[in-house]
Amino acid sequence: MSVHTLYSQLITTKDVGVLQNRLTELKQKIYSGSKTLDQYISEIFINDQRSLFYNFLSEKQIESLDPVRIEEAIDELLNNISEISVVTLRVAFFPGREVLSQVLTIIQEASKFKTVLDIIVLDQIIGGAIFEYNGIEFAETIEEKIERGVSQ
Amino acid sequence: MAFLSTFLFVVIIIAALITSVVASLYAILYLKKVKELGKSKSFDADTVGSMQSELRKAVREALVEIEPHDFADKKLNDLIHERLSQTLIEVKNETLERLKSETNDFRSEYNSVLSEMKDMYVKSSRESILEVEDILKEEFEEFKQILKLETVESQKIVAEKIQKALNDAQIEIEEYKKQRIEIFSKQIAENAMVILKEVIQKNITEQDHKRLIVEVTEKAVEKGFFKKIS
Questions:
Q1: Cα B31 to the center of its chain, rounded Å
Q2: Which of A54, A93, B57, B77 makes the best surface tag, with the fewest CB within 10 Å?
Q3: Is the model's pLDDT at B229 over the cut of 70?
Q4: Environment class of A53 (CB within 10 Å of its CB; exposed 0-12, middle 13-18, buried 19+)
Q5: Which CATH code fits A85-151?
Q6: How far is Cα A8 from Cα A6, in angstroms, rounded to an integer?
């Protein structure tokens, strides 16, 4: 199981934020001692993410739930997450995770880099989308097409 | 005795003659005075009265000159008195007649002069009036002409000003029209776009939205937009 497996669920910056918060929370609770690490992992990570986290630990050969090694693994994950590229996507409405996953797959295939989307919903776009990365835009919207047509 | 009487008579006659001559001289002097007064053209009723009074006074003085003499003969005395009085009356009447004549002449002459003066005045006044009328008429015509010229000039200036104002107004109207047309065009375009957007928004489905997003992503890939990601 590669690190990429855990990241595959990260589509938006919101997902990234949630994962970062959970990892940070777990890191803070490793040495609290009131509960076992399994209990904390079960409480903090839910469903697929929990199994993916365990897979990640297994891949790192951290079978014994050693707090020190788990902390190191969490730091590595947080470090990697902070390096994920963010592309801003402006759309008329939230299109759903399925479409966003499809979009992200296309982007990552093209860029060869793990990427997440920062989704901004704008009513005036009507239809289509505007991508932005490092201050550069690529826009293809119905609004833009109408304005271009009216001005011509 | 007879000789003495004759002598006295002669003396009396001579005295009477001297008295007559003196009276005549007085009269002549008064006439001269009257003439002088006539020349000065200042006779009036008071002057005539004054002259008559002076004349009567002269007669009385002449008689006084005669009366002191002692006439032996009453008859002769009365005769002398009578003749002397008669002579003086005649002189007086003649003087008065002359005076009257002179006065009448003066009045006539005065009236004539007055009449002449009146005529001259009337004539002069009429001429002056005519002259003034002519001057006024001439000035009025001149004034009319100036007024006419000034009116024409003023009309020209006013017409030029009106034309300029009209041109300015037309330019302003054209500019205003242009601005309004631009505003209307912009408003129409904006309204058209709003309507078009609303129509598209109402007619576009969720599936269309999703499809469009994926299409745009593919286009961005085609354009090499995501190759910038690192």
A1: 47
A2: B57
A3: yes
A4: buried
A5: 3.40.30
A6: 6
Which of A56-60, B9-13, B194-198 is the most confident on average?
A56-60
The contacts of residue A13 (CB under 8 Å, 6+ apart) are A86, A116, A117, A118, A119
How is the beta sheet containing A128-133 ordered, strand by strand? A115-121, A85-91, A128-133, A136-141
The SS3 call for residue A139 is strand
Of the ranges A75-79, A92-96, B39-43, which one carries the lowest mean pLDDT score?
B39-43
- Residue B27 near residue B19 (C-beta atoms within 8 A): no
Q: To the nearest whole percent, how much of chain B has pLDDT over 90?
A: 17
Q: Of B189, B204, B218, which has the smallest distance from its Cβ to A106's Cβ?
A: B218
Range(s) of chain A covered by CATH 3.40.30: 85-151
What is residue B86's predicted lDDT score, i.e. its pLDDT? 84
CA-wise closest residue to B55 among B98, B106, B12: B98
pLDDT at B217 over 90: yes
- A26-40, A72-86, B32-46: range with lowest mean pLDDT: B32-46
CA B59 to centroid of chain Cα atoms: 59
Taking residues B40-65, report their average pLDDT. Answer: 68
pTM equals: 0.50
d(CA B220, CA A93): 19
Q: How far apart are CA B31 and CA B102, in angstroms?
A: 9
Tell me which chain A residues have a C-beta less than 8 angstroms from the C-beta of B208. Answer: 127
Convert the pLDDT of each residue in B58-78 to its tens digit.
767 766 655 555 555 677 777
Residue to test with chain A: of B210, B211, B219, B230, most A Cβ within 10 A: B210
Residues of A in contact with B226 (CB under 8 A): 87, 107, 110-111, 115, 131, 133
Q: Closest Cα of chain A to B183: distance in Å?
A: 14
Compute the average pLDDT of residues A136-142: 90
- Residues in A 62-91 with any Cβ partner in B closer than 8 A: 85, 87, 89, 91
Widest CA span in chain A:
70
